[in-house]
Amino acid sequence: MDLSRLEPAAVWRHFSTLCRIPRASGHEQAVRDELMGWAKARGFGAQVDECGNLVLSKPATAGYENRPGVVLQGHLDMVCQKNSGSKHDFEHDSIEAELRDGWLVADETTLGADNGIGVALALAVLESGDVAHPALEVLLTLDEESGMSGAHGLRPDAVRGRLLINIDTEDWGEFYLGCAGGADVVVESALASVPVPGGYQAVRIVVDGLRGGHSGVDIHLQRGNAIKLLVRALQALVAGGVDFRVARLEGGTARNALAREAQAVIVVADASAETLQAALGRVGEDIAEELGGVDAGFRLRLLPESAVPLRVLDDDACRRVLGALHVAPHGVRRMSARVPGVVETSSNLGVLRVSAEAIEATLMVRSLLDAGTRELAAEIVSLFSLAGMSAEVREPYPGWAPNPHSGLLALFQSVYRCEFGGDAAVKVIHAGLECGILTAIWPDMDMISFGPTIRGAHAPGERVEVASVEKAWRLLVAVLGSIPPCASDPV
């Protein structure tokens, strides 16, 4: 991937490095070691804390020593999603992308612009000898996409700066002052099974062709969730009197991505084979009509399965699993009355694995209100408990409450006005930024989040607008050079 002709050259060079080195959540050591060596070779401060977060530092440029220190913050990991036909190996392969109509795009996989572009912008500032700035720290956390364990493990003395710029939002021309908190509801239970009776044949039911997307910022777009649609199809078989047994269900690969693909292996009585096809055809037509204009690529397919499984769920386990998954909340629960046009609370059924022996599922709950997260998560736990399955809430993290009187926001708006004309929009995002956790650690630190335009984060086809990266660089450089000397108010 040759990005050498793109500007700013340093930003794209660093992004190329990040694309070259696999960096799935929980597997960031290789990229962290690369950046550690890069920083030390240039005389920058470089430390790794107990959780594996990386902090790089550089003294203030001449004349900026008495200005409040700045922390540029992002995360090293990326969401790893690929199309079913892709042979990409996220543990070993580099990301492949191409320039197309002003965008850098990865067709078959996620691109990792979330948050690779933010990291690249921060590293380019650190590297530059021409950018004026106060004392500078670059805080790069681990595991943001999988549980935010890096941010959770930060110590209060990890950084010294008084201003924090998070470069992890995805709409150029917008400044973010708040975000949703969230939690995972994890279902794990043993299930009862029986041998496959005689006179049954195995088939595979597949849902695919969906767009997917980010389970926070795309949740209101009414895109299909492959897991929910597959369960709906199976429930339609039950209602249609099809004699079948479930051997396996699986769908989704990340709790924070809308499930694009799901499949079930079932055995169906020979006498019900034609009824099965007819019932699937009817429910498939209904779903396709509902998703028209939103997820036009939806497919519900019946495929042969050569190997007949040895065991299947017994009738009671099948009824409880399908029933609970059918009513499990997915999508927008409530829109915010305080922030018009923004989702307040939602749930995403992101990952499902059901065998004849056990169920494992993860639902990700988000809310602008921490109480909203707790209540919806508790509701989901109650649902699965009533269905005789164990569920618990894991990895809760707080939201980021907006501070409309932020001095850093006022500075960003002033610089934006001078550089680009007009004012940027001030927003709250229905997604999990680390700022909620960071605010709890450093309550007196002034924070803001911004970034270039990224589309399709957390899904194959993710892309970043090249022109917006140059604009983000221009704004960041201008802001750093405009931070005034320390006073009672840091900005």
Helix-strand blueprint:
Layout: H1 9-20, H2 29-41, E1 45-48, E2 54-58, E3 70-75, E4 98-100, E5 103-105, H3 113-127, E6 136-141, H4 149-152, E7 163-166, E8 174-179, E9 181-190, E10 193-195, E11 200-208, H5 226-239, E12 244-251, E13 262-269, H6 273-291, E14 299-304, E15 311-313, H7 315-327, E16 331-335, E17 343-354, E18 358-367, H8 370-386, E19 391-397, H9 407-420, E20 425-429, H10 435-441, E21 446-449, E22 454-455, E23 463-465, H11 466-482
Parallel strand pairs: 3-6, 3-7, 7-21, 8-20
Antiparallel strand pairs: 1-2, 2-6, 4-5, 5-23, 9-18, 9-19, 10-15, 11-13, 11-14, 12-13, 12-17, 16-17, 17-18, 22-23
Helix pairs in contact: 1-3, 5-6, 5-7, 9-11
Structure description:
The chain is of the alpha+beta class. It folds into two domains: 9-180 and 400-482, Zn peptidases (Aminopeptidase, 3-Layer(aba) Sandwich), CATH 3.40.630; 183-397, 2-Layer Sandwich (Alpha-Beta Plaits). Helix content is 30%, strand content 27%. It is built from eleven helices and 23 strands. It has helices at 9-20, 29-41, 113-127, 149-152, 226-239, 273-291, 315-327, 370-386, 407-420, 435-441, 466-482, and strands spanning 45-48, 54-58, 70-75, 98-100, 103-105, 136-141, 163-166, 174-179, 181-190, 193-195, 200-208, 244-251, 262-269, 299-304, 311-313, 331-335, 343-354, 358-367, 391-397, 425-429, 446-449, 454-455, 463-465. Strands 9, 11, 12, 13, 14, 16, 17, 18 and 19 form a nine-stranded antiparallel beta sheet that branches. Strand 16 (331-335) and strand 17 form a beta hairpin. Helix 5 (226-239) crosses helix 7 and helix 9 (407-420) crosses helix 11. The protein is elongated. The chain starts with 8 loop residues before the first helix and ends in a 9-residue tail after the last helix.
